[in-house]
Design brief:
- The chain is α/β, with parallel strands linked by helices.
- It has one domain (about 5-120, about 170-225): 3-Layer(aba) Sandwich (Rossmann fold), CATH 3.40.50.300.
- About 45% of the residues lie in helices and about 20% in strands.
- It is built from 9 helices and 10 strands.
- Strands 2-5-1-6-10 form a 5-stranded parallel sheet, sandwiched between helices. A 3-stranded antiparallel sheet has the order 8-7-9. It has a two-stranded antiparallel ribbon with strand order 3-4.
- The chain binds adenosine monophosphate.
- Adenosine monophosphate (AMP) binds near residues 12, 34, 68 and 94.
- Adenosine monophosphate binds near residues 12, 60, 68 and 93.
């Protein structure tokens, strides 16, 4: 896959994080996952709102656009001259303001948004994926209370670990807010990028492998165009 900037769009629990890891390893992209960066700095104070990053994350609210755009700029600045050509944005942009900011950043770096993968999945599926998910504290392997149990109950298949953890925002109250934010603020981005001619829908209700194949087909087709 030649140089391109790709955005992964979709509701919480649609599988963007997992697919971004697949695409990174399949095609050599650098991934900027805004949620992961934020989780690494939970104690940071967000001035505009008088709350910490951790408090905002746990509530399920979006952080202010200006904070997010600064964060993304600083992540882009960390990439080397080769890496900057192939970037996947996971969980960003999430508002029209952020999309406009990203387009300015792309210009600054001499790039375009080449492709937006829109992972579509119903809220009913997302709720089961998110409220059921937990991971091994040792190796990070992900399980789910509803449909992906370890072979031996309480023991990680990946590393034999017995400690598991859940994201602090994977609970009913925060998820309700995260879905509200998604439908209100991120939903309009599908039209925004469709108007720009770069949006492609992916059925994210399928299995991880089927979604991976669908995403690969889209990238390969894009490459041939
Ligand atoms: P994620 O890991 O993508 O599910 O994001 C977890 C949380 O981080 C979200 O619920 C928001 O509180 C915050 N967050 C992540 N990305 C953004 C963004 N682009 N804009 C605003 N807040 C974000």
């Amino acid at each position: 896959m030649s140089d391109s900037w790709i955005v992964l769009l979709g509701a919480p629990g649609c599988g963007k994080g997992t697919q971004s890891e697949f695409l990174a390893s399949d095609y050599g992209f650098s991934v900027i996952s805004v949620g992961d960066v934020l989780r690494g700095g939970k104690g940071t104070y967000v001035e505009e709102r008088g709350r910490t990053v951790g408090e905002l994350l746990d509530s399920g609210e979006l952080l202010p656009d200006a904070v997010i755009l600064n964060l993304v700029r600083s992540e882009l600045n960390k990439l080397g001259p080769k890496e900057i050509g192939k970037v996947l944005f996971d969980g960003f942009p999430r508002t029209v303001g952020q999309a406009e900011g990203l387009s300015s950043l792309a210009k600054e770096f001499g790039r375009d948004i080449d492709l937006v993968l829109n992972f579509s999945v119903g809220d009913d599926i997302v709720v089961r994926r998110i409220l059921g998910r937990y991971k091994c504290a040792g190796c990070g392997k992900v399980f789910n209370d509803f449909f992906l149990h370890p072979v031996v109950s309480g023991v990680c298949d990946g590393c034999g670990g017995v400690e598991f953890e859940r994201r602090t925002d994977d609970n009913e109250v925060a998820l309700k807010r995260r879905l509200f934010e998604y439908h209100e603020k991120t939903g309009p981005l599908a039209r925004y990028y469709s108007n720009a001619g770069v949006l492609v829908d992916v059925d994210a209700s399928l299995s991880l492998d089927d979604v991976r194949d669908a995403a690969r087909n889209i990238l390969n087709k894009k490459e041939r165009e």
